[in-house]
Amino acid sequence: MDGLLLFAHGARDPEWAKPFKEVARRIALSRPQLGLRLAYLEFMQPELAVAARELVALGCQRIHIVPMFLGTGGHVRRDIPPLLERLREECGPAVEWHLHPALGEQEAVVQAMTESSLAWLAPSADAPT
Question: Per the structure, how many domains does the chain have?
């Protein structure tokens, strides 16, 4: 069974997490049988390790971690790999862990951000139709 772990930074303001919770809600609606958790690096709960253990307890044998970050900065490069290594050691070979690129670097997200940014502008006479 596959699991999906959405991993966001976290913030002191609980309102900050609304878009991430909405993404998780939509995924859960579209894939109700999928093991799914939303976890945070800091300030919010659950932490990555707790959410990952919950997925393992559900029977997930292959867990996909999606960093809900706009880019591959220090957190993605420095903080996630040691957390993931501890999980690999703890769970052993029974669980496959797949760390995916930061969400903001995926083409579909870049395109959505481009379109959303341009949507604020009036249509241009120079824009292709």
Answer: 1
